[in-house]
Automatic annotation (TrEMBL):
Domain of life: Archaea
Keywords linked to the UniProt accession: Membrane, Transmembrane, Transmembrane helix
Protein name: Uncharacterized protein
Transmembrane annotation, as ranges: 48-65, 71-98, 119-141
Length: 239
């Protein structure tokens, strides 16, 4: 019996210690979150800006090749918003919440100081969800031009697309290294323009694939061998 009791006590002690690990980690995380010295504020803000930028660019690169993965826009939105929200949180929200906890007398101010972190996180997630569902232009980083088929990032173009009723017209101004230009949506070629620049392409907006609530298409610059020199992902604008 004594041996069994010792074994049970040992197991119980181990489980208690293991169960305490998440609580200690959470307390340590909160301690870092609320550390408010100038050095820590800059360190936390810089780390979040770096992480957000890396996540935004990496996801944009992946999305340029896998545009059918609609969920990537939410990851992209998370990184994009974090670039601004990280410094806002640790330079403004956290110091304000700490100051109000010490000095606020009004019930509303005291309630805000207690729930500032929850409110801040809730608003952050709401913005991420909205931008993930309805991506805005600045968030949709065009990185495809730097990963063309033959690794020629120096070839560039001015792509100007307009929508008139149901017809989308694109004017592509580039140099003579481009042999022809095509418009793709999904795996379909919607139009092709050969000859000399500027190139004009037209297609029915209904033929463009819908990605996360927006119709998108890709303009590709190609050389004489059919290799891609540069890609431009475009969104069909409302007429």
């Amino acid at each position: 019996m004594d041996s069994n009791d010792d074994t049970s006590n040992t197991i119980r002690s181990v489980l208690v210690r293991l169960g305490g690990i998440p609580r200690r980690l959470w307390r340590d995380l909160l301690s870092v979150y609320y550390t408010n010295t100038p050095v820590w504020r800059w360190l936390k803000s810089g780390t979040l800006v770096f992480f957000g930028f890396f996540l935004w660019v990496a996801t944009s690169l992946l999305y340029s090749f896998q545009s059918e993965w609609g969920w990537l826009t939410y990851v992209m939105a998370y990184g994009f918003v974090l670039i601004l929200w990280g410094p806002l949180t640790h330079m403004v929200v956290v110091p304000l919440a700490i100051r109000l906890r010490r000095t606020a007398n009004h019930p509303v101010a005291r309630a805000f100081s207690r729930h500032a972190s929850k409110v801040n996180l809730s608003v952050f997630l709401l913005v991420v969800i909205v931008l993930g569902a309805v991506p805005i232009g600045p968030m949709m980083l065009d990185v495809t031009g730097f990963v063309g088929g033959d690794g020629s990032p120096d070839v560039s173009a001015d792509v100007d697309c307009e929508t008139d009723d149901q017809l989308v017209t694109c004017l592509v101004e580039t140099d003579d290294r481009v042999d022809h230009v095509v418009v793709l949506s999904g795996n379909r070629e919607l139009d092709r323009a050969d000859g000399s620049p500027p190139f004009t392409l037209e297609f029915d907006r209904a033929d463009a694939e819908e990605v996360v609530g927006q119709k998108q298409f890709t303009v590709e610059l190609r050389d004489g061998d059919g290799d891609t020199l540069r890609r431009y992902v475009q969104t069909v604008l409302k007429a």
